[in-house]
Amino acid sequence: MMKNISKKKRALYIRRIIFVVAIILVALLQNTPHVMPGIFGSHAFLLIPLVVCFGMFETNLVAALMGALAGILWDVTVASGDGYNALILMLFATATSLLISYLMRNNISTALLLGAVAIVLYCLLHWFIFVVCSGATGGFVTLFTFYLPSAIYTFAFVPIFYIILRALLRKIKE
């Protein structure tokens, strides 16, 4: 009986260590200039689909902590590290975890739906708060030339992260 409990705990620790390492690696990939190619001036916000996919496989508290960690790593690299990314990614991860726990099934179509909603919501909120409310020039142009292409570019990574995480978690379970 004790061996089964220790194996389960060991697998849980390995799983969460892998999640933290993945967040660090994806944050480096996203935030290091010229590593990810920009397509038509857009950038991939890789931490958003990663956090959504983590939320699909974790409990509410752990998902919130992983989302906050990802957001903090993102906030450290932006000019105005005001905590916006930490808050929004924590909310995305927690909401995803709650939806999967109580309302939705954990499958690729749900990942695509939740990923799309999170990405579009992030882009629209970021555009509204940091472009429109700050009074920057070219508000609507920025929405259509940067934020929406970035949302489409980021969405391409949702199935990739989901498939990799699902395969990895099955391997750990074995």
Question: What labels describe this entry?
Answer:
single chain; 174 residues; mainly alpha; 0% strand
Structure description:
It is a single chain. Helix 3 packs antiparallel against helix 4 and helix 5 packs across helix 7. The protein has 174 residues and is mainly alpha-helical. The model has no long low-confidence stretch (mean pLDDT 90). It is built from seven helices and no strands. The chain is elongated, with a radius of gyration of 17 Å. 33% of the residues are buried.
**Backbone shape:** elongated
State the low-pLDDT regions, or none. none
Overall pLDDT score: 90
Rg (CA only):
17 Å
Main sheet specs: none
The total of helices stands at 7
- Determine the fraction of residues in helical runs and give it as a percent range: over 70%
N-C termini distance: 18 Å
In total, how many beta strands? 0
SSE class: mainly alpha
Secondary-structure element string:
HHHHHHH
Strand content: under 5%
Write a concise synopsis of the structure shown.
The protein has 174 residues and is mainly alpha-helical. The protein contains 7 helices and no strands.
Write the layout of secondary structure elements.
Elements: H1 2-31, H2 47-57, H3 60-77, H4 84-102, H5 108-132, H6 139-155, H7 157-173
Helix pairs in contact: 1-2, 1-3, 2-3, 2-4, 2-5, 2-7, 3-4, 5-6, 5-7
